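Objective 1.3, modelling of assemblies. Example input:
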Amino acid sequence: MSVLTPNKIDVDAIRDQFPVLHQEVNGKPLIYFDNAATSQKPKVVIDALSAYYEQINSNIHRGVHTLAEKATTAYEETRKRAAEFINAGEVAEVIFTKGTTEGINLLASSYGRKFIGEGDEILISHMEHHSNIVPWQMLCEEVGATLKVIPVTPSGEIDFEAFQSLLSDKTRLVAVVYVSNTLGTINPVKEIIKAAHEKEAVVFLDCAQAAPHMDLNVQSLDCDFMAFSAHKAYGPTGTGILYGKRALLEKMPPYQGGGEMIKDVSFGGTTYNEIPYKFEAGTPNIGEVVAFKAALDFIDEIGKEQIAAHENHLLAYATERLKEVEGFTPVGTAANKVSVISFNIEGVHPFDLGMMLDAKGIAVRTGHHCTQPLMDHFQIEGTARASFAVYNTIEEIDQFVDALKGIVKVFKK
Amino acid sequence: MSAISAKQDEIIEEFALLDGDFEMTINYLMELGEQMPVMSEALKTEENIVKGCQSKVWLHAKANGNAIDFDGDSNTAITKGLVSLLLRVYSGQRAEAITKEDIYFPDKIGMNRFIGTQRSNGFAAMIKQIKLYAVAVSMQQAANK
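Predicted structure (tokens):
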């Protein structure tokens, strides 16, 4: 019999769709709590990927034969579906990338080099992933701009007042994370965007963590750019999207040169294709892009609200139960969070914690989570991080808490 | 059989008693770490740090005639256990032998994850560092001859 959680999600039925969950790790049933690193993939996504290779594999956009036509159609169907998923004004505003990191590099390299120059300022927050720090650092070094950092409060939230005082007429771009990968904090991005626009700065949102949990509506948020990866949202690795407003994308030079992104090539000069193709040089990850659509369908079929309700239920339950663990110290206690719990246990190094949990079949992430400046801010070396997805259960959290209690006992000996 | 191989085989035999149980293996590693001689705080210098992505290891080398003695420590309990094994194998061995003989025991005790490309705990970097010391000592010895 399947048990319905308060929000009526049939978790057993959902778990049945994820083959990878049904295995033992180190002799124990796998409990996968590393979803913020990458989510597992439902059967529909795996099937879509193999169906692509078994039935329609062909290079896209250039062939006249039937398979090329089918592959192109499937590829472009995902673009339409992704545009719908984020409520983009039009399909051409969706550019396929390798993932969030490539999206940010594309933006820094193309938009950044053209529109950001000496004396200009870029604002990022102290809780950014290295992917949303380093490309901007590189750009600033190259063009002579300044990178300014919005501080984070002790609870792990953006200091909004400090942000407002950092905003100035010199601010050209604000690049912030919608949901922190390390802390789970949901940032007030709508307010950030509004304030930035008042200073005529454009805003990029890193939606890598937001995509599987939050409703993304680029038009109502009014963000200028955003990016996310398919693999954190039940989709395949190696693909993701960068969204940009048409007016901005059209003004941007290409990112990489090659096939697909051109209109005409001659040795006298080359003219470039229209958006989005201008930014998609070379043969993309066609199969993965095609299967990405199945992931977006999977999310919408369950419903983002239902997913969030289930995950919030898990988050609230885990947050409460973890208090029973001696020495448990949460890192990031924002009121508005997704289902990510970063923590330390007094006297136990996160690395040991991660290994000992793994021995019990429980997968969590440990370390600095690619947010070293944030770790420095909290004056810690790292954390252990448990992150929950739609297929996780209350029973798994109970086992997790029991495992932690056992580990504490070993260290107290 | 070389002294280094003999030490490694002894470790493999010791861990074989745990029957590949991962949990027991890491618990045993932690016990070994606890039993390791305490490294003097004075040796835990910035210079002696071998940095991994997630844990720190300190390594100090001292030439002792033809051989090299190593001291080590780590800020994580499991890594410390691995460090103790590495020192059991290499400490007190001749520099030339250290440069030539490779480590194969981690794979046999289910700890191969620390050797390959996932260098999360500085163990792989530590092996490299030990070899570098050995090369330096060997070269010095050759020069002194």
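The first strand of chain B starts at residue 49 and ends at 51.
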